[in-house]
Amino acid sequence: MRWRLCWENELSLDDHIELAEFFRNTYGPTGIFHAKPFDGSKSWAGARPELRAIGYDSNGVAAHIGLLRRFIRIGAVDLLVGELGLYGVRPDLEGLWIAHSVRVMHPVLQELKVPFAFGAVRPALRHHIARFSRNGLATIMPGIRVRSTLPRALLDKPPTRTEDVVLIVLPIAQPISDWPSGTIIDRNGPEL
After folding, report:
1. pLDDT at 95
2. pLDDT tens for each residue of 99-152
3. Weakest-pLDDT range from 45-54, 148-157, 183-192
4. How far is CA 143 from each of CA 41, 72, 163, 166, rounded to the nearest angstrom?
5. Cβ-count burial of 116 within 10 angstroms (0-12 exposed, 13-18 middle, 19+ buried)?
6. pTM
7. Which residue in 146, 135, 136 sits closest to 176, CA to CA?
8. Is residue 47 a contact partner of residue 190, using CB atoms and an 8 Å limit?
9. pLDDT over 70, % of the chain
């Protein structure tokens, strides 16, 4: 596996086309709705990442993780974080690379000096991220819900949604004991 770290403005149209196809193929088996945001050459679904780690093998894009620095609100605390999202592993490699992509991104998070990184996944993916807490790289935070704005206005839907997710927090420039208490994270924007 060869990893490429790149800022969003370094991606060419061909890169976006290749990534959009990768996400359609990766997210499509979980439901056509999950693949829909990646129509054409769009290689992001909600918020657009600022940095990406893209893993390649002899068959092309094999894995992906995106990073977006943002302020979230937990209770009364505004907190700068590096949000990790747009996790993807090609279906023939599933179960092998999410941990590797986070390890590739970890030195970048340290360079950016964000206090914490966090990511949220559907409960069905809990087993894919459980190893992070076993190896001490991250903490799974139970009982926290995440509120996000919808990435596009839908007339028949509320403008925000609150989800029960599996939340992982990686201490970067501060210890995990400094993570604010609270049961809801407000992204104040769409998920990555």
Report:
1. 64
2. 677 788 999 999 999 999 999 887 766 666 666 666 677 888 888 999 998 876
3. 148-157
4. 36, 17, 11, 8
5. buried
6. 0.89
7. 136
8. yes
9. 86
Query: Which tokens is 97 given?
Result: 């690379």
Q: Are 166 and 129 in contact (CB under 8 A)?
A: yes
In angstroms, the CA 11 to CA 49 distance is 12
The span from the CA of 99 to the CA of 106, in Å, is 11
Ramachandran region, residue 85 (left: φ > 0; alpha: ψ -120 to 50; beta: rest): beta
Task: Check if the beta carbon of residue 29 is closer than 8 Å to that of residue 18.
Answer: no
Phi and psi, residue 172, nearest 5°? -115, -70
Model confidence at 98: pLDDT above 70: no
* Higher per-residue pLDDT: 101 or 51: 51
Helices (H) and strands (E) in the chain, counts: 4, 10
Q: Could you confirm whether domain 2-186 is CATH 3.40.50.1820? A: no
C-beta neighbour count of 155 within 10 angstroms: 4
